[in-house]
Amino acid sequence: MIKYVIKRILLMLMVFMIIISMCFVLVKLLPDKPAEQFGKDMELIKMRRELLGYNKPLIQQYFIFVQRSLLGMDWGISETLYPMSDVWGKFMEKMPATVIVNLYTMIFSVPLGLMFGIYAALKKNKWQDHVISTAVMVFVSVPSYVYAFLIQYWLCFKWKIFPPQMDAGYDYLSWSMFKSMVPAILALGFGTIAGLTRYVRAELTEVLTSDYLLLARTKGLSRAQTTVRHALRNAMVPVFPMILGEFIGIMSGSLIIEGIFGIPGVGPLYVGAVGTTPPDYNFFMLLTAFYTIIGLTSGIVVDLSYGFIDPRIRMGSKK
Amino acid sequence: MSEKTKYEQLPASAFERVPMEGRMHDKKLESKPVGYFRDAFNRFCRNKSSVVAAIIILMLVLYSIVVPWLCQNNYTRALTDTMYLNYGKLPPKVEGLEWMGFSGTEVITVNENDFYKLRAIADETGLDPIVEIIAGPYQDPSFNGKGKATMYYDLRVDEYYRMGMMYMTVTQQEYDAIQAWQDEHQIQIIFPAITDSKQSDANIWYKADKKGKPTLSKVDKDGDGFLELTNIYKTTTPTDTSYHSTMRIAADNDPEKPLAYARKTGTSSAPGYVIRVSKYNYFQYRYGFEPAFVFGTNANGQDIFTRLASGARFSFLLAIGISAINLFIGAIYGAIEGYYGGAVDLVMERVSDVLSGVPFMVVTTLFQLHLAKQVGPVWSLLFAFVLTGWIGMAARVRMQFYRFKGQEYILAARTLGAGDFRLMFKHIFPNSLGTIITGTVLVIPGVIFSESSLTYLGIVNLESSTRTSVGTMLANGRGYLSTDPYIILFPALFISLLEISFNLFGNGLRDAFNPSLRGTE
Fold first, then answer.
1. What is the pLDDT along chain A (319 residues), one digit of tens a residue?
2. Which residue of B359, B519, B521 is in closest CB contact with A295?
3. Does residue A120 form part of some domain?
4. Looking at beta carbons, which residues of chain A come within 8 Å of B362?
5. Which residues of B touch A26 (CB under 8 A)?
6. What is the CATH number of the domain that holds A237?
7. Is B342 an 8 Å CB contact of chain A?
8. Which of A204, A212, A218, B55 would bridge A235 by S-S if both were Cys, CB 3.0 to 4.6 A apart?
9. DSSP code of residue B47
10. What's the domain count of chain A?
């Protein structure tokens, strides 16, 4: 098991290095001429770039990059998006907003998703199941930004229950801040709830019709007992890794929703870094590395957690 | 038990002797043979929601093909004619569908001055913008008791009539042409010029101060409870006919002092006229029909109905192209991986591992930065989709190949001398067709969704004078969400409907091709 985990992690690091090296080369091949602007000292920029090694050969720059950025967490200084501020510092400053909004979303949507899924599975092919399944179909399909527009229009503009944008500042745990986050949490939550409901329902219906449940019933267990002790535990085997994967994914957040509700998170940072002319390549490299590592890690954690949750699943075995 | 005994005691008469002479044949099947696809189709047709979804998709596709092709509109004429810019933010209006909200009206709150302006438009043009006075006049609720409180009205107004007047500068020929059209159709387009040339708002034909506050005469001649406005129309002499209009407004009844319908500008060799025209009526002159936009117009005055159709057509074409390319690459890649296995598989899997590890947004961004200048944003977006899009398809095909390559019929075919290529594409590939078709269809909504998100975020810019996409329309309508929600409503509705029906359709396809998977979602 441990051998397999180490193998997977090493493989992941290899994939990560290949991706990040490719991106580095591709970014360095792009023209990176600072835009001239009133009040900007071009000579100074040139001198700074010379000192930072922008004019060295590419391979040398690459080693500097690996040493300083990947290993030393020094991702340079922003040139266009937030001029003269430290990229890593700015990134860490934006991180909490994204994490907290997505954390709230998970906290409220995971139990609801599980609940609806279990309920639909228990009431399979009755009207309750049909209602839930239809709603799930709609909510899974409709893009999250459409809910965001609807929520913003009805709840924020028409009925004025919530502010249309998230409050500024860093006081993330205050009540008014929470209230201003609610629209974003709702918009993010619908899709998660629907996806989870669908998944739980599918798994649970499969387990509920299996033979060992029939055996448990014939041995005299009540329906509730079989469901909670036998069916649910087995149905959770594939569901749990999925939830775990989403928990890791929360850090990458949602670009569109963050933009719509003005959440000062990581998403707008990426859009901003790409949107300026010339693009802010330091931010771009950091965010590329970040999104890549989030994606790869969540994949691995999902895979490995199967083995931890259900000992019957032997990871990495040949047969 | 009883059945068994019965069989043992069957009488001899129940048997028939086999004729020894002649040959005996199996009975010919009377029913038609049902092939794989026929079978799948029958199963699909039994799934009602999927059939409905398929019909909806078909209608959306038809809409996106037929509408841009049939409707000549301000969108296609955008390059030469910028008149549409004057008709921005008109809400949806369809005659006969007023009860569904397609009435062209909106509820607004105006202050007293604007209320009088609306009434002035009604008085002058005869097109009354005020459909209903919901509340008012009432005092400003935030009034602090100092000075005079502003009075407000809540109104339901017809946005088409509310457009009112605009100033235009036209040449002699255009002026004559409008005059001739007026006489023919008996619709007043040109309204009298006003004396106060500093007044920038073309709608104010009455005595008012610089802020547009009307000077009201204290007599209510109509007796309708509202005070009268005094006009400030410019007059001319009966001899100077160059300012005249053959069609006149009702107030123009003094033969000694006829009203002037234009102000002259330009040089003597190239005279121009500054005229006040009714936007609503001018539209009829210009385009030959009364303005009524099914889905309304956006902030730039472009018709959303045709624009959405063009955007949808673009999205469909892009998605279908990408899914075809993905199918091609993915099928070949997956076939080679699955068929040869071993070291080949390992190496090829690592390649797709690396590619699928790159976040899609980063791929798109890099392609845009590198290629958008050379090949345009559309092609670089297509390349980005293709670069990582085929991986899913390849994985699917690979699985199928692993499933089938060890089976006996493959061994038999190989023994008979079939080559690798023949085994792969003649014997194994057709077995995986069902999953492949389902996968290919389900790529389409995914591509449309990603494309709309990327264009919405502005990472990809597809907007140009001849092209648009659903995501761009969403992004453009975003700023008007609180005031003109219909601009964003119809693109959002379109994409939601499309995603729902494609998901239902895809589920139906999967159930039809792989009945064993039914109900797993």
1. 788 889 989 999 999 999 999 999 999 888 877 777 777 778 888 888 888 888 888 999 999 999 988 898 888 888 888 888 899 999 999 888 888 999 999 999 999 999 999 999 999 889 999 999 999 999 999 988 998 999 999 998 888 888 888 887 777 888 888 889 999 999 999 989 999 999 999 999 988 888 988 999 999 999 888 988 889 888 888 888 888 888 887 777 688 898 899 888 888 899 999 888 788 899 999 999 999 999 999 888 888 888 888 777 766 554 4
2. B359
3. yes
4. 23, 288, 291-292
5. 366, 370
6. 1.10.3720.10
7. no
8. A204
9. -
10. 1
Q: Do A255 and B457 touch (CB under 8 A)?
A: yes
Q: How many alpha carbons lie under 13 Å from residue B28 in its C-beta half-sphere?
A: 2
Q: Report if residue A11 sits inside a domain.
A: no
Q: What is the CA radius of gyration of chain A?
A: 24
Q: Global pTM?
A: 0.87
Nearest by CB: B521 against A141, A202, A255: A202
Q: A99 lies in which domain range?
A: 95-264
Tell me, yes or no, whether A9 lies in a domain.
no
Please tell me the distance in Å from B499's CA to the nearest CA on chain A. 5
Farthest CA pair distance, chain A: 85
Asked if the structure places residue A226 within a domain, the reply is yes
Interface with chain B: mutation pick from A21, A28, A190, A256, highest number of B CBs within 10 Å: A256
> Which residue in the set B362, B459, B488 is minimally distant from A149, CB to CB?
B488
Closest Cβ opposite residue B366 in set A16, A23, A291: A23
Could you give the CA distance from residue B204 to residue B165 in angstroms, rounded to a whole number? 9
Q: How many CB atoms lie within 10 A of CB A185?
A: 22
Contact A185, B504 (CB under 8 A): no
